[in-house]
Write a structure and sequence with these properties.
homodimer; alpha+beta; Uridine Diphospho-n-acetylenolpyruvylglucosamine Reductase, domain 3; Vanillyl-alcohol Oxidase, Chain A, domain 3; 7-stranded antiparallel beta sheet; 18 strands; globular
Chain lengths: 455, 455
């Protein structure tokens, strides 16, 4: 037994230290393609904050890298193993410690699954908005690490906006508490927000105090068919410009619609170039939906179909939620971009993406949180076809380059990981990058926390 | 002429470097009491980013401290001069560069007055929520520096939530761009949020991209009279627990009501112990107001008076907005606490504050953003009475201590400055403080940016 395993085992129950090579391999990757992973030395699966501190103290003493993990549904390789590392899985720290309707907060451990929390707070008439596609599997800790978004963001914003305070185990095992339980607070630097989205590179989140909202009425949706992505994007701009705040505003292009139909037999319109879904969760959504429908028609929609009731709305959303899985099934592998551009540049991004697909002879489907300008161009390819895989990777990068050129960001909600590391340097520039390194040094002087990720 | 003035003047127009001692003295303070200020060496009033860079390069070369300033309406001494410093006033960088209704953003220079921006965006049907009491005077740069709030926060949150990206001149004159123009983005560490609320200690904000919202309907308010602060705080908890999201939820105690009447002759009820104001800015506020009124009555309200129309609502808000000025007039000087506690502890904070006032033989009026648990206990005293001033200072500190004991924070929206520096250390603890210092070093290795403030 290596010194690492021996010392880890000294402070953890036997079942919390995994070393079987097959098990190690099964923990080595998140869901991102094209991201290499090293071979971990061990997986630690603590149940308590003290056990996490023991892992970090051990790793610090031996200068062993530590990679924290949630459900490994991430899409950028941030949770992938680094050679010889300890994979620190927070999955068993999965308790909801408190739900308080007066304070509108929940206090949770990092391994709580997003959907579990959402359902638990709903029982108190409360609402935890962040809803990434993987919400039935992904954990709050993972959401915090990557800064996840979802369909809700056009009205409710991203995960960061719901994190009031954190308990964090630092690289050397010390415990840091950030933020607050109160609705407001500006005492000192915003370390909470600094840690959200830092992909485990600054500390291990072992607890979170989350802001909740009052549960809104069930949302009512409409679907609008457009003869071009240009027209659909024009409608998005007109809807936002007119002062509407839909609870979601989503776009699926023809490739995506076909993929969803192939998988689900849902019978979505396949001849249309783009389908827009808009919904409102206000007490009286009908006039809003009507106005949005008219704006869609004015922008060139050929058909506008309001849902009859929340159940029909939910069906439409199911189609949208199935998009990524459906696109993945088209050719067996997919690579999901996450470029976010100003709304006014959405049409240019979609047009440019279509050109990139054509130039590389590839299938790229686009679904988008259109109201945010956050697109997920998804390259569908056969991983066994080396040339196609190479073209897929190239097109993926070209889409990020295009996004930056259009004034956007390389990641709206999926994070950087290893997949977009070189692109992050491009987006941030040298001054920002130097400050990032200074902050990293202040938190993790020996560089043991998820090294080689983000920057 | 000193070397500092000579070198400053080499890159700034003559009228942008002020050295007259009377002028220097007039710039040396913000509006906080009990905060010492040094004598500045100069005031620099640049109009361009390049001029700000020149100031910082000069200060960096000569290791001279720099204190950035907006309208100096701050309440914690953060903008006070440090001995021998350059006061860097951003007041003349006051252009609104862009308002974009599709992207729902505004791009501004730091010297833009909050009310000027709010009115300008309203012309586009847009809404910039943060509304500190000083909104007619304070600047966006100052709001960003201190992390300001206001009456809007219970529904719309604080300044930080509206800052998408920043242009920042660093200590050595380099230019940093943080954040984005897009609705979402998680590329790298959240340097934007780190700088918001850092009180000029990490860099000089020279530009900001702000998120806007669609303008809501005019709000409709009700006023409820309570026989005790306990009953009023109970009503606050029941209102939030019932899932209401008012656009404001404010409390004034009897001392405050009397002070406002004395100043404005508004005829507010003086025999009531606490007045609660609640408002909604939804399309159909009447049912909500009715429900809130019933909750108030159930909590013990003796009178519930809904406003007839938005104009009458505005009158009620005027009374609330006059509170701090009115309390200041009671004995000529006032000292405003900014403690924020969990809503459930609001009653305990108000009770404890009353005890502190009695023990010290002082008048302390409380107005509060009650929906946030953010209170402003305001100590009224005669500054010429040395003993009373000493007791005022002691009571001010005791209220912060009480706030921390109740699980709150020493500052909900006013910042730390010099006034609450020792209390910040108390709130954060040594681990957090060490990380604060590490971050400060990464941004400002020679410690020239607003030294001696925050921590």
């Amino acid at each position: 037994m290596s010194e690492l395993i021996e010392r880890l085992s000294a402070g953890l129950p036997a079942e919390a230290v995994l070393t079987d090579p097959d098990v190690l391999a099964s923990y080595a990757h998140d869901m991102a393609g094209f991201c290499p992973a090293g071979t971990p030395a061990a997986v630690a699966v603590p149940r308590t904050v003290e056990q996490v501190r023991h892992v970090m103290r051990t790793a610090d003493a031996l200068r062993v890298p530590v990679v924290p993990q949630g459900a490994r549904t991430g899409l950028s390789g941030a949770a992938n193993a680094v050679e010889g590392c300890v994979l620190l899985s927070l999955l068993r720290m999965d308790r909801i410690l408190e739900i308080d309707p007066v304070e509108r907060i929940a206090v949770v451990e990092p391994g709580v699954v997003n959907a579990t929390l959402s359902r638990a707070v709903a029982e108190h008439g409360l609402f935890y908005p962040p809803d990434p596609s993987s919400w039935e599997m992904c954990t709050i800790g993972g959401n915090i690490g990557t800064g996840s978004g979802g369909l809700c963001c056009v009205k409710y914003g991203v995960t960061a906006e719901y994190v009031l305070g954190l308990d964090v185990v630092l690289a050397d095992g010390r415990l840091l508490s950030t933020g607050r339980r109160t609705a407001k607070g500006v005492a000192g630097y915003d370390l909470t927000r600094l840690i959200v989205g830092s992909e485990g590179s600054l500390g291990i989140v072992v607890g979170a105090t989350l802001a909740l909202r009052a549960e809104p009425p069930q949302q009512l949706a409409l679907a609008a068919e457009f003869p071009s992505t240009d027209a659909a994007c024009e409608a998005v701009c007109r809807i936002m410009e007119a002062g509407h705040t839909p609870s979601l505003l989503e776009l699926m292009d023809r490739t995506t619609l076909r993929a969803v139909n192939d998988m689900t037999k849902m019978g979505l319109p396949e001849t249309t170039e783009a389908l827009l879904l808009a919904a409102f969760d206000t007490p009286d959504p009908a006039p809003r939906l009507h106005a949005v429908g008219e704006l869609c028609t004015a922008a060139g929609a050929t058909e506008v179909v309001p849902a009859e009731d929340p159940a029909e709305s939910e069906l439409l959303l199911k189609a949208r939620r199935a998009a990524l899985t459906a696109l993945d099934a088209v050719k067996g592998t997919s690579m999901i971009d996450d470029v976010c551009v100003p709304r006014g540049r959405l049409a240019a991004l979609l047009k440019g993406t279509a050109e990139i697909a054509e130039r590389h002879g590839l299938t790229i489907g686009v679904c988008a949180h259109a109201g945010d300008g956050n697109t997920h161009p998804t390259v569908c390819f056969d991983a066994a076809d080396e040339d196609e895989a190479r073209r897929a990777r190239a097109s993926f990068d070209e889409i990020m380059e295009l996004g930056l050129r259009l004034g956007g960001t390389i990641t709206g909600e999926h994070g950087v990981g290893t997949l977009k590391k070189s692109w992050l340097a491009e987006e941030l520039g040298p001054v920002s990058l130097e400050l990032h390194r200074g902050i990293k040094r202040a938190f993790d002087p020996h560089g043991i926390l998820n090294p080689g990720k983000v920057f």
